[in-house]
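Predicting holo structure, magnesium ion bound.
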Amino acid sequence: EQKKLHLSEPRMFTHDLFQSLKHVENLRDGLQEAIDKKQLYVCYQPIVCCKSKIPWSFEALLRWDFNGDLVNPDIFIPLAEQSGLIHDIGAWVLNRACIDASQWQHSPNASVSVNVSIIQLMDDDFIHILDKALKTSKLPPQRLHLEITESMFADNKGKVRAQLDAIKARDVQVSIDDFGTGYSSLSQLQTLNFDTVKIDRSFVQNIDEGGEAIIKATMFIANQFGSQTVAEGIETELEAQRMDEMGVDYLQGFLFAKPMRNDDLRIWVEKLNSQVISIN
Ligand code: C2E
Ligand code: MG
Ligand code: MG
Ligand code: MG
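Done. Tokens:
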């Protein structure tokens, strides 16, 4: 019996692999049409001041409704990167986010934080795309933050720095995303000179299993370089309190709000503002 089971395994594996390859192929084909079919939309998640809880920025998070199925960005962003679609999709998100933010009458001073893939950043056209988004939306550049994940910096250090310099020359701010999860060295952090460091939620949510030491070390480094800090993935009051004790500047997580469509964001902020007014 054991032998039989063993023999059947490779076939099952091949079948599963075939199915999943087909699935990926379907997704990639679907993604190609997603912009035209208006299946992509942007949600916004508040990043609030640790002390006052006032929104400081809103992170743009892309959503894909693939014929009724919501596909996780952790799946479709890598697909878009592999297929080169990330250039069109990324430009679309950037433009959409700048236009939305320029019309946020509820939060005229808050910024919008847009995720930029390293593949987009390395593109010679990226700065042109950035300029166009700023010009079309008339968003003050100080109100735009670009979030770049730290992984892969090592391979492209010179080019990354040149692109970041061009971004900073426009008064757009740069955040390093998922800090601590990649391979970047501390000296890179210093030379690249980020405005904001985002502490990955894996450290926040495993604070008692080593996360605390990493957050403290990150805070020390960020303070040395004059960067601001955001802690991601805050789900409980206790987590928020501990981040406050460690001196984190801003917080983001389901404790405050999940990512929302632009209309729901307005309602959320207006409700928040009315609460603040009624307390005073
Ligand atoms: P990220 O930039 O680190 O974004 C934060 C992720 O954490 C988001 O997942 C958000 O929904 C989730 N999150 C926020 N608060 C909490 C919390 O309290 N608990 C938990 N469990 N999760 C929380 P999401 O929206 O699924 O996005 C996943 C990743 O996909 C993003 O990670 C980002 O790397 C990428 N991504 C999303 N939109 C874009 C985009 O427009 N362009 C690019 N290049 N990447 C994007
Ligand atoms: Mg991000
Ligand atoms: Mg992150
Ligand atoms: Mg992440």
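Strands lie at 40-49, 55-66, 69-71, 111-115, 144-149, 173-179, 196-199, 228-231, 250-252, 260-261.
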